[in-house]
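Why does residue order matter? Because the sequence determines the fold. Keep that principle in mind as you read this record.
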Amino acid sequence: MNKHVKSRAIELYTTGITNKSEIARIIAKELNSDDFTSIRLASSRAINKKFGRKVDNGIREASQSVEVDYKNVPYLWLKTKEASLFVKNPTFEAKEIDFDKVISECMSDYKPIKKNEFTLKKSGKTFDRLVWTDVHVGMDASRGGLALYPVDWNEDMLMQRVVEMANFVLSKKSSDLLIIDELGDYMDGWDGETVRKGHKLPQNMTNEESFDCGLKAKLYLTQLLAPHYNEIVVNNICEDNHSGAFGYVLNSAFKNVVDCLYKNVEVNNYKKFINWYKVGDHVFVITHGKDSRNLKFGFRPQLTPQSIEKIDQFLKYNSLYSEGKYITFCKGDSHQALLDMCSSDDFYYFNYMAFSPSSEWVQTNFKKGRSGFQFEVYEYHTNNRSLHPYYFSN
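Structure:
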């Protein structure tokens, strides 16, 4: 159907119908479809690709009158006593910000400490692993006490949970190596929307407050754990559907600060959708489960035949079957603790619970839910592992 929509949109456009909404309405009526939004989007993309985007003459003339290049003008907002007119410039393309460069310049006066050689030394029989995900810093889960299960998800509660997590890790500590996997959606969103835009989110913090709170929590966790381990490796997933670039900016700042403060802590920020690392005979494939642009429905909590094939192809492409004997695919996003060791003969499929309480949307559509994190202990060269889920009481 999508191919027909595109070709029909171009055909109608060439007849002189330039209003894309009108074109979409005609096609929707012809197809007897009520999915106007998808048809409108497909039509617009097809027309723009075929004929290019045309700048509004008013924007061009207004920009030229003040000697500004119209290509650098995202919109025109014309106000008079009688009316207010807002027009977007379809040719404007925002330039991507090099956040690494910005943060590095801010940290230019601070010299990174020379790190240990991170070879994941086998100083004992086991290594420790901490997994937390879906922190959703800035989410409003209360709505002023009107939610079904109102929770004040604020800085105080986040820091309290960080302390609980650190204490639990230290109570279960088995080795001198700790790997911390943070699997995405650390920040709830930017300007009250997800990274994909168009999905409004109830939030109780500004962008600045969320950034300060999220960075403080990560640094505090590092401060609590770093004195007790010879080596800590922190892996942050920065490709997800809520945080996106905001999550990467925060994690980049976190990495730069940690590099200057701790000799025994290494931070890896992953910008790809699916990533992996190896420890002993174990291979861990880590992802949020849903990305920032392509997947409307990501990896599900239950392993499906389609997901098995998708993961299998990734493992083969990266030659991971020959990298380790024991492969574990790890994801967040679903806010559920479901650890599947049976559906596939080739790998385990682990879903991890959310660190944050349930949003009001989840409370209303599903149930109150449970939140927490998971601490794990692995033997380097066997499949023996101890899994310790921790559930918050509130």
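The longest strand covers residues 372-379.
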